[in-house]
Design brief:
The chain has helices at 2-29, 34-39, 45-54, 61-73, 87-122, 127-141, 144-158, 172-175, 185-191, 195-232, 235-242, 247-285, 290-299, 303-331. The protein is an all-alpha fold. It has two domains: 2-73, no CATH class; 89-337, MetI-like (MetI-like fold).
Length: 338
Amino acid sequence: MVGYLARRLGQAALVVAGVIVLTFAVTRLVPGDPAVAYAGPKAGASELAAARARFGLDDPAPVQLWNYARDLFAGDWGTSLHTRQPVARDLATAFPASIELVGAALIIAVLVGVPLGGLAARYRGRLPDLSARVSSMLAVSVPVFWLALAMQTVFASNLGWFPVAGEYDNSLDTTSPLHVYTNITAVDAAITGNWPILTSTLSHLVLPALVVAAYPAGLIAQMTRAALIEEAGHDHTRLARALGFGETAVLTRFALRPALNPVLSLIALVFAYAVVNGFLVEAVFNWPGLGRYAADSIRSLDTPAIAGVTLLVALLYVVANLVVDLLQGVVDPRARTR
């Protein structure tokens, strides 16, 4: 297990190094001059020169890359051109709301996708299987932006079951002020016993979380079905049937655990996808996460902020894959030999 962990950490470090180089290159290819964006379109030559010197834009590219990587590891992700605040501080403020949304969505996706895939595998070729496959295909195929608007129109505007937008009712800031510890509103409200804000946050969270969860749930259901069907044909499951175990017991007790390996890998993939996909959902539901910050950064050609968002999402993907690799090594010892 120690060797397996060392290999995975080494691979993750190489990926992170590649991400840093690519992020640096992309920010240098963005149209526009960061010095102009920072100093303003009416800035004089001396002000532009000062801005270029501040951001090291006149240095050779290798020197800029070295300084960029050094500052990243020191916790300095640059200064946003439109908020004039450190990018790391902006991300620390916006990211928890996105994690709140994506975390809730992935919990829903796993709780729905794994049982749905198991049901389809158990009744393969019959009506439950067909229904599960059609449902998962629809969940994967429907455009997330359209689904967000449809859910908002039907369940918020027409039926009034859920709030239309926002993270919680802002009027509660006066009557039930929230003490912030993690910047994740639901968590802070729960640990401080602020039930009005917790209830409001959960009601605001339902629709956007369901929208973000649709695509991952469909993929997880399809992968779970395929993995269970494959495992059901192996020798150990055939032996279980010969010993008198029923099909449900064979799938849940003998096939499910090894079938979770590809499902765990898929969860790592859909996690990063859900973060990016959540940007559109955040725009529809006015959710105060990375989506709003990224949109403002793109509109103002804020290259440090754009690079920060890009790098953060890439690091999330690397960390998610590393965690899944470790979980696979625990669930299935065969994975450690890869």
